[in-house]
């Protein structure tokens, strides 16, 4: 929908309705719910209006036991960096120290995205280079034709 005619408000309304009406119980272990929240975060970013983030933050606060760490870190660094970014810097620095050993390319790219908005991207550069044709641990990365990891679902934030 965003790649077509760019109806941000329609995409936002549909995602919010799906999240609020879902049977997931706000279980942070529900992959469909977490994917929907990543999508909603992207829509909120594309919309560029603070009110779009309100339902996102409400849903994030309801996740149990707590939001996935990479999602929370990315949002803290990206959605409202003036308010939450500085407090999240220690978590970002810790993530950047270990990102090279992360086998999930989605996690690597999301940490890199968070780092980009804090001007810390250089600290995760080695891990990003590993996502090239050979991919992490030689398994094939998202850029490898027919790579073992398949398509990256959650590239966020856009850079």
Question: In a few lines, what is going on in this structure?
Answer:
The protein is mostly helical.
Average of pLDDT: 80
End-to-end distance = 19 Å
Count of runs of 4 or more consecutive helical residues: 7
Low-confidence stretches: 133-153
- The total number of structural domains is 2
Helix content, binned percent: 55-70%
Strand content: under 5%
The number of E-state strands comes to: 0
What attributes characterize this protein structure?
2 domains; globular; 159 residues; 7 helices; mainly alpha
How would you describe this structure to a colleague?
By secondary structure, the protein is mainly α. The chain has 2 domains: 1-67, no CATH class; 68-159, no CATH class. 56% of the residues lie in helices and 0% in strands. It has 7 helices and no strands. It has helices at 8-21, 31-47, 50-62, 69-78, 81-98, 105-116, 125-129. The relative contact order is 0.11.
Detail the topology: elements first, then pairings.
Blueprint: H1 8-21, H2 31-47, H3 50-62, H4 69-78, H5 81-98, H6 105-116, H7 125-129
